[in-house]
Write a structure and sequence with these properties.
The protein is an all-alpha fold and 197 residues long. The chain has seven helices and no strands. The longest helix has 30 residues.
Amino acid sequence: MEFLRYLTIALFVIWCVSEIVISLISAMNKSAVSSTGADKFSFFIVWLSTIPPILFAYLIQKHSIFSNGFGSFSARFPFLGYLGCLFIAFGVTIRLMAVTTLKQQFTTKVSIIERHKMVETGIYKIIRHPAYLGYLASLLGIGLVLGNWVGLAALVVLPLLGILYRIHVEESALLSYFGSAYQEYANRTKRLLPRIW
């Protein structure tokens, strides 16, 4: 269990650092942004649907009110902690691949940049929103390693709602900008899960 604890801490730090790096990349790319108002507060909605559930999931695991093990599954199912570590690593990898594929077009807010091009290469051949898939996979992993059903539910449901809103906003902006080209791309790819949705 000690190894799992250290692995979890290391992966959580890697996830936090990757999100900081992604934000810095976005900040460098913002100078090319030509559209404003396309985000419709989705950036804030995603973060508001993420940070409180992370804090809640952590507190519910550590707080003395729940010392009786309310919702805990970590003692009975330690392999779920290792599975959570895999999800965090997978999520960070997929998210960084998506950002790397978009290069200078990546921003953390829904934006159209100068000379915006539709990206259909790399992981974007398979799904339209791999960065969000990676984000959600990492949060699922964090919920699993924290080992509490209530915290896990909060870390899956609330961020998913925020990401679904973000996808709606982003796809509307891209459809408005690219028109039928984006619609054709959307018809042959899935949003988050290959061959499913």
